[in-house]
Amino acid sequence: xxxxxxxxxxxxxxxxxxxxxxxxxxxxxxxxxxxxxxxxxxxxxxxxxxxxxxxxxxxxxxxxxxxxxxxxxxxxxxxxxxxxxxxxxxxxxxxxxxxxxxxxxxxxxxxxxxxxxxxxxxxxxxxxxxxxxxxxxxxxxxxxxxxxxxxxxxxxxxxxxxxxxxxxxxxxxxxxxxxxxxxxxxx
Length: 187
Fold this sequence. Notes:
Arc Repressor Mutant, subunit A; 2 domains; elongated
C-alpha cells in the first residue's frame, strides 16, 4: 500500500475518534504506520491533510456511484441506484462519512471546500434529473434544488444510522428514499 493511502486511512481513524481539532499529526503518523517526517513530507500541516482527506473522500464517493449507475439507461433506475450506492458508500466508510458530514462543516474553509467538491456530485445528479425531465419521467422542477435535496436526505438518513450504530438495509432504504423523492417529482 502506498504511504499516502496509509496516511489517508490512518487519518480517518484518528479524526473520527478525536475530531479535527484534538487530533495531532503524531497520532496520525502512529496510526498510519509511517514516520512523522514521512507524514510532513506529504502534508505540510494538519489542514492540508484534512483538505486532502475531504477531496479524496468525495472523489471515492463519486467513483463508486458512477460505477453503480453507468450501466443503466433509465434515469429513474439511475436515481435509485445512485441512492443505494451513496448509502453503501457511507455504510462501508462510516468514519469517513462522519468526517465528511460532520467535520467538514465545523470550519469555514473546510465548509467552502466541501461545498465546492459537492458541486461535482450535484452535477452528476443534475444530469440524471435533466434527462428524466426531458423524457417526461418527472415534472419540471428546480434541478439544482432537487439534486441538493436528494444528496442531503440520503446523507442524513445514513448519518443517523451511523451515529446510532445500526446496520443499514441499503436496498430497502434506497427504495424508501426513491419513493419519497419520486413522489414529489412524478408527472
